[in-house]
């Protein structure tokens, strides 16, 4: 049996255990999912500041450096992303970037999160409630 | 004024991050044109989150409760004892032009002083090394606590109370307060030289070099074992000398060597940890 333990995030659901066809899953946190989605969207251009802008634009909420980098560390520890030091640019005062790439494991975890949210939202019409 | 303070504070805060992370964070803050105040707030939030995460591991707690608090406290106690011995000799020489007679011979006095000082230096260094290897992200908290224990318990705080006058006791050579300034100066100098500086030299090593070579480890462990035995021996001299000096008036039942050795073994556990860390294979290294 494949077992995965995925901790973290801000959401109350992130440490709940879900059983799906004998596969034990633990959900990503919502912020972890947002970060994975932003990194996947940015592709080769995924790094700290760019990810932050994508998340802020998508959620309309401020995303702090503290939340961003501690979550990046956590995702990397879980093997869901890979990070490395990128090139320095003039716009950044000659400082290098922390580049991000979502791993195959990260894609799988994000896909599972998305599917659970979609499944649990089926038949729910928020406007009507 | 405020801006200069902000810049200084921001610089100090960012200095606590690892070089690669600092580059990335400072680059992001520059690219996003974040205001100075906001940047400080964000940096503080990052440090707080990382600190909270670091404290969830058992290693920083072992460093804090097993070394920083007990060993630094006891080492500072020992350094205070050495400083008191030095102080009484300095005062006797200043006032009467002779050294204070403790009942020990000159050679025994020197040997006792050298052995105890060297032992405190080696114990402090290995304690510092173990703190550096165990503390991980909580290093600056443990370092700060170590300094506070040395400053307050080791009487370094006198420097602040005396408005730095204690640092220059020889300006007050003829003054009636000279003994007080001398006392503060000796305690400060001894705790700095024997405890704080060696401990910080030890703390920095795991960050600079990772593992310590087997030759250096063997040298350190042998030196500590030898010095521990010598301190046990010289302590016995002191008990006997005190009784002889008082012509039997101060009669202590001199503790046996086992009783004198046992408390000193507390200082040796960081050295044992160092030895185990070096002997383990590279992949399982205590401080990778």
Describe the model.
Chain A is α+β, with helices and mostly antiparallel strands and 129 residues long. Chain A contains four helices and four strands. In chain A, helix 1 packs across helix 2 and helix 1 (30-42) packs across helix 4. The model of chain A is unreliable at 1-17 (pLDDT under 50). In chain B, 75% of the residues lie in helices and 0% in strands. Chain B is globular and about 80 Å long. The interface between A and B is medium-sized, with 22 and 22 residues.
How is the secondary structure organized here?
The complex is a heterodimer of chains A (129) and B (288).
Chain A: E1 17-20, E2 23-26, H1 30-42, H2 48-59, H3 65-77, E3 81-89, E4 95-102, H4 104-121
Antiparallel strand pairs in A: 1-2, 3-4
Chain B: H1 2-14, H2 19-31, H3 36-54, H4 58-68, H5 70-96, H6 106-135, H7 139-153, H8 158-161, H9 178-209, H10 214-245, H11 257-265, H12 269-279
Helix pairs in contact in B: 1-3, 4-5, 4-6, 4-7, 5-6, 5-7, 5-9, 6-7, 6-9, 6-10, 6-12, 7-9, 10-11, 10-12
């Amino acid at each position: 049996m494949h077992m995965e333990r995925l901790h973290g995030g801000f959401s109350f659901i992130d440490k709940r255990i879900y059983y799906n066809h004998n596969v034990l899953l633990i959900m990503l946190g919502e912020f972890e999912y947002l970060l994975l989605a932003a990194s996947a969207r940015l592709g080769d251009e995924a790094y700290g500041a760019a990810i932050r802008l994508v998340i802020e634009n998508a959620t309309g909420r401020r995303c702090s450096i503290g939340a961003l980098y501690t979550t990046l560390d956590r995702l990397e520890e879980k093997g869901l992303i890979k990070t490395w030091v990128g090139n320095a640019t003039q716009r950044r005062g000659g400082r290098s970037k922390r580049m991000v790439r979502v791993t195959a494991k990260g894609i799988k975890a994000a896909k599972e999160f998305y599917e659970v949210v979609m499944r649990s939202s089926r038949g729910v019409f928020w406007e009507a409630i | 004024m405020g801006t200069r303070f902000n810049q200084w504070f921001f610089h100090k805060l960012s200095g606590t991050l690892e070089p690669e992370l600092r580059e990335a964070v400072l680059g992001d803050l520059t690219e996003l044109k974040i205001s100075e105040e906001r940047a400080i707030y964000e940096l503080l939030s990052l440090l707080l989150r990382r600190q909270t995460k670091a404290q969830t591991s058992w290693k920083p707690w072992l460093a804090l409760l097993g070394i920083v608090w007990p060993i630094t406290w006891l080492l500072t106690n020992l350094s205070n004892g050495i400083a008191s011995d030095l102080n009484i000799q300095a005062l006797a020489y200043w006032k009467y032009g002779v050294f204070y007679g403790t009942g020990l011979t000159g050679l025994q006095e020197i040997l006792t002083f050298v052995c105890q000082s060297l032992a405190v230096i080696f114990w402090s260094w290995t304690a510092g090394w173990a703190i550096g290897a165990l503390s991980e992200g909580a290093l600056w908290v443990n370092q700060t606590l170590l300094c506070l224990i040395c400053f307050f318990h080791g009487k370094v705080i006198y420097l602040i109370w005396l408005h730095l006058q204690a640092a220059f006791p020889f300006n007050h050579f003829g003054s009636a307060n000279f003994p007080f300034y001398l006392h503060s100066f000796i305690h400060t100098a001894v705790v700095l030289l024997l405890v704080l500086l060696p401990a910080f030299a030890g703390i920095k090593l795991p960050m600079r070099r990772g593992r310590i070579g087997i030759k250096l480890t063997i040298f350190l462990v042998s030196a500590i074992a030898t010095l521990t035995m010598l301190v046990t021996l010289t302590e016995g001299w002191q008990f006997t000398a005190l009784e002889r000096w008082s012509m039997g008036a101060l009669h202590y039942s001199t503790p046996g060597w086992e009783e004198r050795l046992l408390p000193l073994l507390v200082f040796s556990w960081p050295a044992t940890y160092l030895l185990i860390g070096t002997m383990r294979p590279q992949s399982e290294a205590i401080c990778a």
